[in-house]
Amino acid sequence: MAVRKIVQIDENKCNGCGVCVPSCAEGAIKIIDGKAKLISDNLCDGLGACLGDCPMDAITIIERDAEEFDEEAVKVHLGQDGKSASQHGHQHANHHGHHHGGGCPGSQMRMLNKSAQSTAVVGEGDVEIKIKSQLQQWPVQLMLVPPTAPYFEGADLLVTADCVPFAYPNYHLDLLKGKKVVVGCPKLDDVAFYATKLTQIIKMNEIKSVTVAFMEVPCCTGIVRAVEKAIGDSGKSIPLHRVRIGIEGEASKF
Q1: What distance in Å separates the CA atoms of residue 110 and residue 100, rounded to the nearest whole number?
Q2: CA neighbours closer than 13 Å in the CB half-sphere of residue 43
Q3: Which of 17, 44, 55, 231 has its CB surrounded by the most CB atoms within 10 Å?
Q4: Alpha carbon distance 241, 231 (integer Å)
């Protein structure tokens, strides 16, 4: 036994989705009684390949007394699960080379190629203007983005209530351009979770500024409170810009 880095799973946050299971190349995590559990300390290498794949942010790396990581035990364990050592080696290389998005191909973290992004044509009659998408990264859902995503480092962060892009016609050029974005619904999702996730993003990265765009409806102010709490809890002094969008599409800053 020695003090080392190892995975810790918060069962209060875990929803049992199982996304983390295939993300662990060593097979150290299983769903038991509807919750993800670390089944043996010596199967966990403590590198955290499963961290960015948890949509509930229930997995962290801590330091505690634990058995040493045992590569031979992993091989035996994977053999019992019907996986060969060669399969393990391939998975280990894949997962520790790409720590995020392995559980679901659609949520794999990536930067977008701006030269390949589509354009939209706006205007009437003889006057047409092409607007290029300003989205720089994927995913955008706050529930899915890993706090350690490299695109957050040195970024201007845009926190958007998910109705805003539908109501505000110039969302890409006025709000999204030059920023990294996270999106959520304070009415349907857990605002306390939002605050915690945003706090982690701000603490773990040098965020230059935060803009929060929200709708004029009362329930939407929850995302503003989450952002304000996150900045306060982070202990950092970061410029905060609030942009309220009306249902008819008008924007006001305060």
Answers
A1: 9
A2: 19
A3: 44
A4: 12
The single residue listed with the structure tokens 């006001």 is: 252
**What residues does 66 pair with on adjacent strands?**
2
**What is the spatial distance between Cα 168 and Cα 77, in angstroms, rounded to a whole number?**
53
**Largest Cα span, the chain:** 75
Element (H, E) at 75: helix 71-80
pLDDT, tens digit, 9 for 90 and up, residues 86-142: 344 434 434 443 334 444 555 666 787 665 455 556 566 666 777 788 999 988 999
Q: Tell me the helix, strand and coil percentages in the chain, rounded to 5.
A: 35, 25, 40
Look at the pTM and tell me if it is higher than 0.90: no
CATH code of the domain containing 88:
3.30.70.20
CATH code where residue 206 lies = 3.40.50
Residues 116 and 203 in one domain: yes
Please check whether residues 119 and 46 belong to one and the same domain: no
Of 159, 201, 194, nearest to 180 (Cα)? 159
